[in-house]
Amino acid sequence: MNRQVQSFSQAFVVSIMALVLSLATTNAVGQDMDHTRPTVPSEQLTIKALDAKSMILTPQDIAAMPHKSVSVYNSHTKANETYSGVPLADLLGKAGVPIGEKVRGKLFLIGVVAEGTDHYKVLYSLAEVDPSIRAGDVIVADSVGGQKLGKDGLFKMVSSEEKRPARWVRNLTSITVIEVKP
């Protein structure tokens, strides 16, 4: 009898996990990246930390911060582009998110969700955006080729180590720090 209960419990857990994964996959597949659709330009950037505190940044705030340039190939435009912006790690640090040597243990289960005005969302792990852990750069760009971003809004999330720009977010409007619970 005890074995039957254990088998039933395992089957139940597996069924629930399969249901959750199928729903998550349906949601992820349903999100498309249509650059031909008109979008609403971003006007400000909200960063929400784990402690529920928010920081709102204007284009003037971003322009006043130290910038970094990254040169990348954009497969959408089929061109090499140079973006300039603020490293995401710097913005997260200003919002009180641990960065650098403070990232260890459970902090490797922290995620960063970037969202555009078109509700396109991507997820980075905290380690992926921390330059003390990863070689590539993730920036919140406010210019490309020395010019404002134009149709891509006031802010755009750009990662220098992506083979294709699927996790770049144009018209970036929010960055939310989350705890991933396995």
Compute the CA-based radius of gyration: 19 Å
| Name given to the CATH homologous superfamily of the largest domain | Oxidoreductase, molybdopterin-binding domain
Structural class: alpha+beta
Strand order of the largest sheet: 2-1-10-5-6
**Helical stretch tally:** 4
What is the assembly state of the chains in this entry? Answer: single chain
Q: Overall pLDDT, averaged?
A: 81
The CATH level-2 architecture of the largest domain is identified as Alpha-Beta Complex
User: Which percent range describes the beta-strand content?
Assistant: 25-35%
Query: Do you know the CATH topology of the largest domain?
Result: Sulfite Oxidase, Chain A, domain 2
Structure description:
The chain is an alpha+beta fold and 182 residues long. It has 2 domains: 1-28; 43-179, Oxidoreductase, molybdopterin-binding domain (Sulfite Oxidase, Chain A, domain 2), CATH 3.90.420. The protein has helices at 2-29, 59-64, 88-94, 126-129, and strands at residues 45-48, 54-57, 68-74, 79-87, 110-116, 121-125, 138-144, 147-148, 156-159, 172-179. The strands form 2 sheets. A 5-stranded mixed β-sheet has the order 2-1-10-5-6. Strands 3, 4, 7, 8 and 9 form a 5-stranded antiparallel β-sheet that branches. It is globular. It starts with a helix and ends with a strand. Mean pLDDT is 81; it is low at 2-31.
Features:
Sulfite Oxidase, Chain A, domain 2; 4 helices; 5-stranded antiparallel β-sheet; 31% strand; 25% helix
